[in-house]
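Weekly sync, protein design subgroup
Attendees: M.S., D.O., the rotation student, P.L. (late)

Item 1: inverse folding check
M.S. brought a backbone from last month's batch and wanted to see whether the design step gives back something sensible before we order anything. D.O. pointed out we never logged the input encoding, so this time it goes straight into the notes. Structure tokens as presented (283 positions):
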């Protein structure tokens, strides 16, 4: 039985992020990673994990924190001048603007390493611990998010890569990772593969919505540089297929994702509500 993603669980999650980073050695790197990690963001990935759990314990919070650290590291690096060269993230200057490029690189590197250390420090049994590490590394690395970043930056170097494939890898893999981790923590081992795929499709849906927001959204609500992809001459689903087709694809993906969830969970409402929130978000 899954429970609604309550405000209390999100508050506990924020406290976990704070406690895992507050005692790091005093440094600019510590200041930078906490600047990026704490008190901001939609927290979609932890909410996806919690939506599959009947209760949320300390180990669940730590696994969710590890994934959020990896996500935040990816955003810090994605914003760098060598990649997207963005000035705003979550409504405030990006890390390399608030600090400098060297500190931004080191802060991202630290978060990636701290994520794995956090998993190892849980009290999960060894099987679950290793499975969580396997899911995290597979989705965050060259078979997942990093491949998607490569495809985003150098699409001409990858044969048969569609925009949706790039979205699936760059964003979908970590959303799939969240649902796969939720399956591990809730002992639904037989559903790991299915929910990984559901999360990957959710990532495509998320990115298409992002494309629409970049064209039509309010900068004050979006909280990041508007027209970033257009500025960098990146092809988006809206640019290639048009606004109407993007909206149609958004509806199609939402319907398919919710159908798949309904066929696999006895009590899917918590997760279904999150899907609607993601689809209808304004930032």
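Designed sequence read out in the meeting:
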């Amino acid at each position: 039985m899954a429970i609604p993603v309550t405000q209390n669980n999100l508050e506990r999650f924020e406290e976990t992020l704070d406690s895992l980073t507050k005692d790091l050695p005093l440094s600019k790197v510590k200041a930078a990673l906490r600047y990026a990690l704490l008190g901001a963001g939609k927290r979609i990935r932890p909410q996806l994990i919690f939506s599959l759990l009947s209760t949320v314990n300390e180990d669940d919070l730590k696994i969710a924190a590890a994934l959020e650290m990896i996500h935040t590291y990816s955003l810090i690096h994605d914003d760098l001048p060598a990649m997207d060269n963005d000035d705003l993230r979550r409504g405030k200057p990006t890390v390399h603007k608030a600090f400098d490029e060297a500190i931004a690189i080191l802060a991202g590197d630290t978060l990636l390493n701290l994520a794995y250390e956090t998993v190892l420090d849980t009290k999960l049994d060894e099987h679950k611990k290793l499975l969580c590490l396997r899911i995290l590394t597979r989705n965050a690395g060259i078979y997942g998010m990093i491949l998607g970043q490569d495809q985003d930056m150098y699409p001409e170097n990858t044969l048969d890569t569609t925009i949706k494939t790039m979205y699936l890898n760059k964003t979908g893999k970590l959303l799939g990772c969240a649902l796969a981790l939720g399956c591990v923590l809730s002992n639904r081992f037989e559903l790991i593969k299915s929910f990984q795929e559901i999360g990957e499709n959710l990532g495509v849906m998320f990115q298409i919505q992002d494309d629409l927001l970049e064209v039509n959204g309010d900068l004050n609500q979006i909280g990041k540089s508007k027209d970033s992809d257009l500025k960098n001459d990146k092809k988006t689903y809206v640019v290639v297929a048009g606004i109407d087709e993007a909206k149609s694809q958004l509806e199609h993906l939402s319907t398919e994702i919710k159908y798949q969830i309904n066929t696999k969970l006895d009590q899917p409402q918590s997760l279904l509500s999150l899907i609607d929130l993601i689809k209808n978000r304004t930032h």
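Discussion: The longest helix spans residues 192-216. The radius of gyration is 18 Å.
Action: P.L. to compare against the previous round before Friday.
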